[in-house]
Design brief:
Length: 203
């Protein structure tokens, strides 16, 4: 479990195909590897990956073909920056919201509108995820916990403060770039519970 508060802007070192529709990804991140061990979880652009090895300030993780297909990780190349966050500890503050690191879909940057103290960014929203996104609700974009400013049938927008623009990948994302999206898991649980009640005739 994560909080969507990016700890470090890391970098893809290399991606090695391992056969069987999978890859081994090496990521440089001195902060997140400072206490990392085999088996630990680290979110890379919002995707929960399991550490298999740590070498200095670089960790490696196995990435299954399913993950490469369903997220934007497959498009990353050596040198690309990535948002990194270690799994939350039970005694840590919940600065963002509950984030699983399980990407629900891939969106796309539609537009950017700079302002004096912030920037409004609009993203394409896959149709299957639209019902989970509400104005003033939470959404995770490339591992960053953000508050939805506006939402349409197939898009949503957020306001990014200077800190987010400077310390995460969203500062350099251009129109057309893909982003990993994870909707608020609470919305999915509510939908399931209400669906079961309706199906059972409970009003």
């Amino acid at each position: 479990m994560f909080t969507g508060i990016v700890e470090e802007l890391g970098e893809i070192v290399r991606t090695t195909e391992t056969g069987g529709d999978s890859a081994l990804v090496a990521v440089r991140g001195p902060l997140v590897t400072s206490d990392a061990r085999h088996g630990d979880s680290i979110a890379v652009n919002g995707v929960c990956l399991t550490v298999v090895d740590v070498d200095g300030g670089t960790f490696t993780a196995d990435v299954m073909g399913e993950t490469l297909r369903r997220t934007a990780l497959g498009a990353l190349r050596p040198g690309d920056p990535v948002n990194l966050e270690r799994a939350a500890a039970l005694n840590s503050r919940l600065g963002g919201h509950l984030v699983q690191g399980h990407v629900d879909g891939v969106g796309e940057v539609l537009s950017r509108e700079p302002a004096a103290q912030w920037e409004t960014v609009r993203f394409r929203l896959p149709a299957a995820l639209a019902r989970y996104v509400v104005e003033k609700g939470s959404i995770t974009v490339d591992g960053i916990s953000l508050t939805v400013a506006e939402v349409g049938d197939d898009w949503f927008s957020v306001g990014l403060i200077p800190t987010t623009l400077k310390l995460t990948t969203l500062g350099a994302r251009g129109v057309g770039d893909p982003v990993n999206l994870e909707v608020d898991v609470l919305a999915k649980y509510v939908e399931r519970l209400l669906g079961d009640r309706v199906a059972g005739g409970d009003r």
